[in-house]
Design goal:
Oligomer: single chain
Strand content: under 5%
Order of helices and strands: HHHHHHHHHHH
Radius of gyration: 19 Å
Shape: globular
Structural class: mainly alpha
Largest sheet: none
Number of helices: 11
Length: 285
C-alpha cells in the first residue's frame, strides 16, 4: 500500500517532466524501508501493550509465535531507522544534488516526521494509533505526502494543486485498509485501544468503509475530469470490479473471514495507481 502512492506520484511526474531513474528508485526504496519500520514498530507496540494475544483474529507474527525476542525486534527496528535515513538522504541528494538547499532541508524534516509517525502508531507512552487517530495519520502520510512528496522529489515542483485529488484518493483507500483491519480486530482491540471502527460499531464501520471507497473513486475521477480528456486517463476503471467485490465482502463477512479483503484492497489500489500513471504516460504518445 505504501508503494501505491509513490508509484502514482512518480508516474504522474514522469508524464509531466523528465525524471531520473535513480531518484525514482530511491523514492521507492525509502518508502519500502518506512513501511517495514512501521510494521515492525506496530508489532512490537501491540505486544508490549498486550493487544496482540493468542486470541488475535489476524495472522500471527514473529513476536506472538515466539520466533523473535523483544530485543531482536528492537534491533530490527533501529536497523530500519538507519536504512530509512540512508536511503532518504541518498534520494534527496540524487534529486537535488545537495542536502543543504531549502528543498532538501524541508524534505529531511518531512522524512524525520515520517519516521516518527511510522514508529509512534503503537509504540511509546501515548501512541496515536490507540487514540483513534490512525486514520488521520494514514491519510496524511500514505496519501498526501506519498503522492505529492514523490511527485515533488521526482520533478522538483508540484505542477498543479489538482494533484491533491489523486493524493486524497490514495489516502482514502489507505484509510480503508486500516479500517478493515480495525473491523476485524474490534473484539480483541477493545481491552487496550480505541479505533474509529470501535466508536462506530460494526455497521457504522461498514458504512464508513463504503464512504471511503466511494470518495476515493470520486477524487480520482474528478482529477481526470479536470485534465484534458483522453480515454487512456480512465484506464484505472478496469479495477472497479475488484473494489465492488471488496465492498461485498465487507458487508457479508465478519472477524477472521475479513482477512482476504485486506490484500484484495491493497492490490486493487496498487493496480489502480499503476494503471492511472500508465494512462497518463500513454497519453503522451
Amino acid at each position: 500500500m505504501s508503494t501505491a502512492g509513490v508509484v502514482l506520484g512518480i508516474l504522474l511526474a514522469t508524464a509531466d517532466f523528465k525524471v531520473s531513474f535513480w531518484t525514482a528508485l530511491f523514492i521507492v526504496l525509502t518508502t519500502v524501508c518506512l513501511q517495514i519500520l512501521s510494521n515492525l514498530s506496530n508489532e512490537l507496540g501491540d505486544v508490549l501493550n498486550g493487544t496482540d494475544t493468542e486470541d488475535r483474529q489476524g495472522p500471527q507474527y514473529g513476536l506472538n509465535c515466539g520466533e523473535l525476542t523483544i530485543k531482536q525486534m528492537k534491533m530490527a527496528i533501529w536497523t530500519f531507522v538507519v536504512l530509512c535515513c540512508l536511503n532518504g538522504l541518498a534520494m534527496i541528494w540524487l534529486s537535488f544534488g545537495s542536502l543543504l538547499s531549502l528543498e532538501s532541508v524541508c524534505l529531511i524534516l518531512l522524512g524525520a516526521a515520517a519516521i516518527n509517525a511510522a514508529m509512534r502508531y503503537t509504540l511509546g507512552n501515548n501512541p496515536y494509533g490507540y487514540r483513534g487517530l490512525g486514520d488521520i495519520f494514514v491519510f496524511t502520510f500514505f496519501g498526501i505526502v506519498s503522492v505529492m512528496g514523490a511527485y515533488f522529489v521526482a520533478a522538483h515542483t508540484v505542477s498543479s494543486w489538482l494533484l491533491t485529488l489523486p493524493a486524497a484518493s490514495i489516502g482514502l483507500f489507505s484509510v480503508a485498509v486500516l479500517n478493515v483491519n480495525n473491523i476485524r480486530d474490534m473484539k480483541t482491540d477493545a481491552a487496550t485501544r480505541t479505533t474509529i471502527a470501535m466508536k462506530m460499531g460494526v455497521n457504522g464501520a461498514r458504512i464508513y468503509q463504503t464512504v471511503l471507497i466511494v470518495l476515493g473513486w470520486a477524487c480520482m475521477v474528478a482529477y481526470c475530469q479536470c485534465k484534458i480528456f483522453d480515454p487512456w486517463h480512465y484506464l484505472f476503471l478496469l479495477t472497479l470490479p475488484l473494489y465492488i467485490v471488496h465492498l461485498i465482502g465487507i458487508w457479508t463477512r465478519n472477524d477472521k473471514d475479513l482477512d482476504p479483503m485486506l490484500p484484495l484492497l491493497v492490490m486493487s489500489t496498487f493496480a489502480l495507481s499503476l494503471l492511472t500513471g500508465i494512462g497518463f504516460l500513454v497519453y503522451l504518445f
